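Need tokens for this chain, all 239 residues.
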Amino acid sequence: MDESTLHWFYVGVMALGALLFFVWSQNPRDVPRYEYLIALFIPIWSGAAYMAMAMGQGKIEIDGQITYVARYLDWIVTTPLLLLALSLTAMHKQPKNYTTIAGIMAADAFMIVCGLLADLSETPIRYVWYGLGVLAFLVVLYLVWVTLRQEAASNPDPRIAGIYNRLAGYLTFFWIGYPLVWLIGPSGLGIVSQSVDTLLFIVLPIFSKVGFSIFDLWQLRGLSESAGHVSPLTAATHR
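Here are the structure tokens for all 239 residues:
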């Protein structure tokens, strides 16, 4: 399967994900509609970026090395949104800590920019940027597993802590793959070929974008079902 076909496959998966989130948004089940909007926008934006690559756009070649700029245009928008969704789950139905949310999204954006600069640089400078990106990733993980986890643990609904831990573990598992794939791919040590690199950067975002949002919304939607009643807020909005 060539790279273009893989990219079109990804676009199709993103379209199906966006359709699912739109359908779910019509029956929100006490989940704020802005959370569906976030989940919906992620695959739309990501699918558009990969559609550009499928049509031969969104990439540049420097000294024989291809840099998929469209990937970084995808990540600079969608990865902060994923962290926003994770933060909103940790703070579900309680006052939002906007400082923490802004901090984790900013650290993530810095990480993505470092990755792009690494891809555009020559050795050994590229590993300087790569190292800074990894440090930013560690900051993100600290905020996910310490700061946001504390927010989830203090949530009045005791079920939120468990939901958050599962989501954080899921996202962390797949996100660790990104710097590893970059390192073993053509941008780094060149252990794997460009085609394998492309395949891995198809699989990882499918699970970490659409997969994460399905997992997140499915669990939040289940809260209203397990409660066995409609919340006063939902009842008021339907009067």
